[in-house]
């Protein structure tokens, strides 16, 4: 059992983003490495900072999401505060919420002053751009032009496609963004084969960046359904939304566990010829449950 379990997506610049495995390792060893280098995604709510300080060790890298409703301000502020506490905290920079060069320069200055060295650049879901950056690529190019100080730059991956963008355009976009980035973090996908096939596909097209697989943390069924159903995550979200009355057949009593998904992803993580480098956990701010889940996995694996 311990040789076939667990996988998780993220933005950890304490690990070497472009490091590859030069020799075969056991699945257990690959899984231990992936779990140790796991990153967590958090939502910028009022109690998030306190929850991170209470439950998340400093060696776990964090990303801070951005929402169209709240804008970039709360995301930048939380990333700055967490960085000053000693965390590696990467804000989501949603291009369509950046107004202009002056706004971008101000954001970079705030992050530089706080010692933030990681960002995750996305297009964002705003119906209309707030200014001159319609997509992630335009923002990435401008960051390069102004000499940003970020050592880790994540971009999004979409194993199930994007609800509003044709697949061929998504494929072209990741090829164009890759030279400006150091890693890919995938959106949620509940099908391991879909994720692994997608990762092999982008590698075949020349995108050699390490891929962190986005998985849900240990969250309640109700919260998982409520949030994923509203994020446009393809068939997985539609299935969950449609089958709420049947969730007990698939999820453990009391909450969702990522164990089954991790088990199915494990053969592709950290193996020669694979660009699956580890996990990025969408915690939905269930930080205590997620950290307990990860610690228990590591304890079992390391005791073997």
Question: Could you write a compact summary of the structure shown?
Answer:
The chain is α/β, with parallel strands linked by helices and 304 residues long. 39% of the residues lie in helices and 14% in strands. The protein has eleven helices and eight strands.
So what's the CATH class?
A: Alpha Beta
Count of folded domains: 1
Helical segment tally?
Answer: 11
- How far is it from the N-terminal to the C-terminal residue, by CA? 10 Å
CATH-derived topology = TIM Barrel
Rg for CA atoms? 18 Å
Average pLDDT number: 82
Q: Unreliable runs, pLDDT <50, ≥5 residues?
A: 1-23, 231-235, 238-251
- Largest sheet at a glance? 8 strands, parallel, barrel
Largest sheet, spatial ordering of strands? 1-2-3-4-5-6-7-8
Strand content: 5-15%
Total beta strand runs: 8
The proportion of residues forming helix, as a percent range, comes to: 25-40%
Apparent shape? globular
